[in-house]
Design brief:
single chain; 135 residues; mainly alpha; 5 helices
């Protein structure tokens, strides 16, 4: 009966130890970017809805949107801390400009309400990473 040699033992030991693969594949990076874009766009939408509902006197709706916006912001801080910290000041500037916009009395015809009354060609977008923020 053949005796195991050191060389055979080492080969079997190497085969039994799984090789660690790269944790960031192209697909996982793509999904991470997609998650980031979705969360930022969701925060912007909820923040915009908070402003619009508040300006038109729908306090309960505005509070619900504000709570949801805060939950998304918590998720952004927890998952994308440094990246969110870099983008957040620009988004807060955008939010403050939204608070300064005049709104009409009727929300159905209000020209300041972008989410509900804006034509589809003028969407609120999130630029991809590395591209400048629209002014």
């Amino acid at each position: 009966m053949p005796q195991p040699t050191d060389r055979n033992i080492q080969a079997v030991a190497r085969a039994a130890i799984p090789i660690q693969r790269r944790s960031t594949t192209s697909l996982s990076r793509h999904l991470t970017e997609q998650d980031w874009t979705t969360l930022v766009a969701t925060w912007r939408l909820l923040s915009r809805l908070t402003v619009e509902r508040t300006k038109h006197g729908f306090g309960d709706d505005a509070d619900a949107f504000a709570r949801d916006s805060a939950a998304v912001e918590d998720d952004l801080e927890r998952t994308y801390g440094a990246r969110w910290a870099r983008l957040r000041p620009r988004l807060l500037d955008e939010l403050s400009s939204w608070w300064g916009e005049p709104h009409g009395a009727d929300p159905r015809t209000c020209t300041g309400c972008r989410v509900q009354n804006r034509p589809p060609g003028e969407r609120i977008t999130v630029p991809p990473p590395g591209q400048p923020w629209p002014s």
